[in-house]
Write a structure and sequence with these properties.
By secondary structure, the protein is mainly β. It contains no helices and 11 strands.
C-alpha cells in the first residue's frame, strides 16, 4: 500500500513554469514505477510522463516532450514533474500514479495507486 500526496500546482501565464511534486509513503518507493497523468474537463485522463523504478528510464507524451521533465528522489520518496514553456492546453488536473512493476505503463488504468490530483491552470 502506498499513499501519494501531490503539491505544486497553480495558476501560471503561458510560457511560464511550474514544478509538481508527489510524495509517496512507505519504504518501498524504489519498487514503484511512477507516472504523471492529466485530465482536462470533458476529456479522458491522458498520459503525460513516467519514470522507471530506479529512474533509469523516462517516457513522455509527444505533446510535452522537450518541455516537461520527470525525475525522482529516492531519499525523499518523491517524484517531480518540471513543466516549462507551459501552454493553455496544458490546463488540467494532474495526477501522480504508482505501480509496483519493472515495466513502465503509459495507460492510467494499469496503475494501482494515485493521488488526489492537483490543478494546473495556464492562462493565455
Amino acid at each position: 500500500q502506498v499513499q501519494l500526496v501531490e503539491s505544486g500546482g497553480g495558476l501560471v501565464q503561458a510560457g511560464g513554469s511550474l514544478r509538481l511534486s508527489c510524495a509517496a509513503s512507505g519504504r518501498t518507493f524504489s519498487s514503484y514505477a511512477m507516472g504523471w497523468f492529466r485530465q482536462a474537463p470533458g476529456k479522458e485522463r491522458e498520459f503525460v510522463a513516467a519514470i522507471s523504478r530506479r529512474g533509469g528510464g523516462t517516457y513522455y507524451a509527444d505533446s510535452v516532450k522537450g518541455r516537461f521533465t520527470i525525475s525522482r528522489d529516492g531519499a525523499r520518496n518523491t517524484v517531480y514533474l518540471q513543466m516549462n514553456s507551459l501552454k493553455p492546453e496544458d490546463t488540467a488536473i494532474y495526477y501522480c500514479q504508482a505501480r509496483i512493476a519493472t515495466v513502465v505503463p503509459t495507460d492510467p488504468v494499469d496503475y494501482d495507486y494515485w493521488g488526489q490530483g492537483n490543478q494546473v491552470t495556464v492562462s493565455s
